[in-house]
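Re: weekly structure request thread

Next one in the queue (258 aa):
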Amino acid sequence: MSASAPAFEVLPAIDVREGRVVRLRQGDYAQETRYDDTPLALARRYAAAGARWLHLVDLDAARAGGYTLAPLLELLTAETGLQVQTGGGVRHERDVERLLEAGASRVVVGSLAVREPARVAGWLRRFGPGRITVALDARQDRAGRWQLPTSGWTEDSGTGLEPLLRHYADAGLRHLLCTDIARDGMLSGPNLDLYAWIRTLAPGVRLQASGGIRDRADVAAARAAGCAGAVLGKALLEGRLGLGEVLAADAATGGPPC
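Done, posted below.
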């Protein structure tokens, strides 16, 4: 393991709908939990706990298109110093430009990455693979195949995870976010088998685990499975997991995943 290799990333998540911090259950907009903190107050708390990254999602735009959180993004980066990975409703090249101009370190592209892979592969070339995170969030069908819903997970794209992942790996993808939708907001643990399989398909991609993470053991297990980062949502919001404890444990481990 090289001492110069990138560190494991812990990314606390803030999902925003109608200006409020929320969490959805399995991506279902009808099963929403709202939290009292404002997005800015929560981001400040995460920064104070030692976070370096934030995962910010525009849930309204994820379904309808048209990212709406640029003013919040500018405020977050200016006031907290956090590096922000953000997306939701990114449909056009100008959307990527706007988010980067507003202070995003990485722009997350989800639905369009499924619908127009050649176009998004072009963005990897134009903006650089370090500035784009492709989100291939998956749901397993009855035959055991991993499919990729779009539009905030509300529409069936008919596209499978494996061929699209191979396409992006060949295009030079660096950052991949993958959520097992069935585990999102369920606190049932990450899908380590899914992540191990993805690592065999695209070993050179930095994979972020998302969905189901409950505690420090789950973060450690994702790291041991070869993930390069973990997105933490509901467990932090409900106080089941302390961000400072996770960051301290990660620092004690020392270095990137092997």
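The longest strand covers residues 9-17. The two ends are 6 Å apart (CA to CA).
Next request, please.
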